[in-house]
Structures are given as structure tokens and as C-alpha cells.
Amino acid sequence: MRVKHKPWAKDRLEEFPAIYIKNPEDFKGSWHEVFGNNNPIHIEIGSGKGQFISGMAKANPEINYIGIEMIESVLVSALDKAIEAEVPNLRLVARDAKMLEESFEKGEIAQIYLNFSDPWPKKRHTKRRLTNPSFLTIYERLLPKAGEIHFKTDNRSLFEYSLVAFSEYNMLLTFVSLDLHNSDYEGNIKTEYEEKFSAKGFPIYRLEAKFDRN
Ligand code: SAM
């Protein structure tokens, strides 16, 4: 993804401490205090410009959401959407998914969303894919036993890779669609990438998976 560098992004994010959590490590194990309730916490990893996570927060006030995006120049667009949405149940964090265990306790996250993750098509970059087993190990620690990962993408190769990765990790696939927008799945909230690629006629692939097979 080409990203326009915004040198002012960091300062702008820090102007909104009620939404942007500058030091997420400080809240490891106590995120419920950040939200002021015990509602479940769902995170989106690679939340980009934030349309999905803001939409989800607005649609589901009984769930707390955290958008995690490693590029501040991108996250600053998600900040604008969060301000506009005026929701108390949304926070934003600028971190690489590799570092998530420094900010969240075991089982602290109820659900993980991965939307239109970068496909990293070259074999030597496989480890950077957010559905690589090295990331699944992290997700498994963050989620409780019944916690789920919901993943959507326009990229067939990444989807196939992920189906295999999840299966080989012995996860249970509970939902698979090869054409989400023509399926009977209800309540879909579109991401920026989803709008762009579905407008070009690409099918959207979606799956739900969990570590607990019972
Ligand atoms: N989810 C958004 C959407 O569907 O419109 C953005 C998709 S964009 C292709 C992928 C985003 O994931 C980028 O903004 C990128 O910076 C972010 N990302 C990639 N790897 C990441 C990682 N390891 N940790 C956090 N964010 C990551």
C-alpha cells in the first residue's frame, strides 16, 4: 500500500487522548478500565483508515473496539472517523501486530478482525502475512478459548493461504464464503478496501475461525 507521509500525524493523534491510546502497554490487563465497563473487547488488526471499526462501534454499543494500525499517517484518518462517529466504545492504537502481547493480557481480547490484510505475495515475505502461523500463535494467546478470528479479503491467494494456515494450525473454520456480497450473511460493515475492490467487480472472501474445536 502506498502511504502519504503525514509528519503531523503523531501530534494530531496525541491531541485526542480519549480516542488515541499512546502507550497501550500501560493498560495490559486493565483495558476494561479504559472503557469504564466490562463489555467484551474486539480488535481489528491493520484497521487502515478506520471505516470498519467506526461502523462496528456505532452499530454495536455493547462491545468495545480497538483499531490497531502500525502506520500513524494512516491511523490519523481513522481518528477523524472516530471523532465523527462520536462513540464512547472505540479506541485507536498505533502498533505492529507483532508487539500485541506487550499491550494485552492472555484472553483479554474476545474477537479479532483481519480485513484486507496486505497479501505479501512474495514467498520470502510469507512471515509478514497476518495469517501466518507466527501471528496465529499471538492471536491464540490474546483470545479466550471460544474467541474467534473474522477475516475478509479480495485476494484469493491470501484467502487460500489463510484457509490452509488456519486448518494446519488445527483451528475450526465456522464460516467460509467465497462471495460475501452475494451470500446471505447479514450485518456486513464494509471497509475502505472492500468498497474499492467490490466496486471493481471482485468477489469478497470471508471466513470465521476459532482455536477451540469443541
Ligand atoms: N483494513 C483496512 C481496509 O480493509 O480498508 C486497511 C487494509 S490495508 C491493505 C492493510 C493495513 O494493515 C495497512 O494500513 C497496514 O499498515 C496495516 N498493517 C499491515 N501489517 C500490519 C501489522 N503487522 N500490524 C499492524 N498493522 C498492519
From TrEMBL:
Alphabetically sorted, this entry's keywords are: Methyltransferase, S-adenosyl-L-methionine, Transferase, tRNA processing
PROSITE patterns from the entry?
Answer: SAM_MT_TRMB (PS51625)
Where does the chain bind S-adenosyl-L-methionine? E44, E69, D96, D118
Q: Which CDD domains match?
A: AdoMet_MTases
Q: Which residues bind substrate?
A: K122, D154, T191, E192, Y193, E194
> Which biological pathway?
tRNA modification; N(7)-methylguanine-tRNA biosynthesis
GO CC annotation terms, alphabetical: tRNA methyltransferase complex
* GO molecular-function terms, A-Z: tRNA (guanine(46)-N7)-methyltransferase activity
Q: Which SUPFAM superfamilies match?
A: S-adenosyl-L-methionine-dependent methyltransferases
The Enzyme Commission number assigned here is 2.1.1.33
Q: Which reaction does it catalyse?
A: guanosine(46) in tRNA + S-adenosyl-L-methionine = N(7)-methylguanosine(46) in tRNA + S-adenosyl-L-homocysteine
Q: What's this protein's family per the entry?
A: Belongs to the class I-like SAM-binding methyltransferase superfamily. TrmB family.
This protein is called tRNA (guanine-N(7)-)-methyltransferase
